[in-house]
């Protein structure tokens, strides 16, 4: 039972050789194909290493678990150059409201001054100047009212400011000349009246006030020639102006 029949053994060998012949082509073909695939795989690997860096996918940033959708929306809407909505300036209507308030205060001051309520008028005009400090009209009106109140120094300052803001305004130069007369500076007043006449040659008030200032200068020269001291040469001109106007 342990021995194999010789004839059966030959038959088994013949079957083995027939199977090898039958499948030889398939075996070699498979080996050849495997070698080709290996070469192609190596070639692809070399190509990827040399020029495939740009095709390599970049890692995506990890999402911060603490970020909310609302913050992302804010970042998408607000650009780096966009102003912060919390730092926005005043509404556009504020400027118009200030202009209306300025005009209202100026008008109230005008009516009060016409009614002889000079201090109340000054209060309204000061409020208007706090809104628009470079308004030459109110500075000139202040100078006139301060002259009525006998405050020659502050009148002189207000009139000077009016001429600085608008040098081409002859009325401001006349008001300045009158303030200089009341402050005891007729020489400076003459210069102011001359500037007013240079801007408006037919300005009758400037001509009359200039004559008054010239008359006061002549009187001062007479006092100087009479030997009065330097302190007595400077005198209050307000009364002199009234006397000169009465004489003329």
Automatic annotation (TrEMBL):
Keywords noted in UniProt: TPR repeat
Region feature (Disordered): 47-96
Gene3D superfamilies, per the entry: Tetratricopeptide repeat domain
Protein name listed in UniProt: Tetratricopeptide repeat protein 33
TPR repeats: 102-135, 170-203
Xref: InterPro entries: TPR-containing (IPR052658), TPR-like_helical_dom_sf (IPR011990), TPR_rpt (IPR019734)
SMART domains with a match to the protein in the record: TPR
SUPFAM superfamilies: TPR-like
């Amino acid at each position: 039972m342990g021995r194999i029949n010789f004839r059966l053994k030959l038959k088994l060998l013949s079957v083995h050789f027939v199977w090898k012949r039958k499948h030889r082509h398939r075996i070699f073909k498979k080996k050849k194909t495997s070698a080709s695939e290996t070469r192609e795989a190596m070639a692809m690997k070399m190509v990827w290493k040399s020029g495939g860096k740009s095709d390599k996918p970049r890692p995506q940033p990890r999402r911060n678990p603490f970020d909310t959708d609302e913050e992302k929306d804010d970042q998408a809407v607000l650009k780096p150059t966009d102003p912060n909505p919390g730092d926005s300036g005043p509404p556009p209507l504020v400027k118009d409201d200030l202009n209306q308030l300025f005009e209202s205060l100026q008008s109230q001051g005008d009516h009060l001054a016409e009614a002889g309520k000079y201090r109340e008028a000054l209060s309204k005009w000061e409020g208007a100047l706090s809104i628009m400090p470079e308004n030459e009209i109110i500075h000139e009106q202040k100078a006139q009212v301060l002259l009525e109140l006998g405050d020659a120094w502050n009148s002189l300052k207000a009139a000077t400011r009016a001429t600085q803001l608008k040098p081409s305004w002859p009325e401001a130069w006349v008001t300045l000349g009158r303030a200089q007369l009341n402050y005891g500076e007729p020489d400076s007043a003459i210069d102011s009246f001359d500037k007013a006449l240079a801007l408006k040659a037919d300005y009758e008030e400037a001509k009359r006030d200039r004559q008054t200032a010239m008359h006061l200068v002549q009187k001062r020269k007479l006092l100087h020639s009479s030997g009065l001291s330097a302190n007595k040469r400077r005198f209050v001109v307000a009364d002199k102006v009234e006397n000169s106007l009465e004489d003329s």
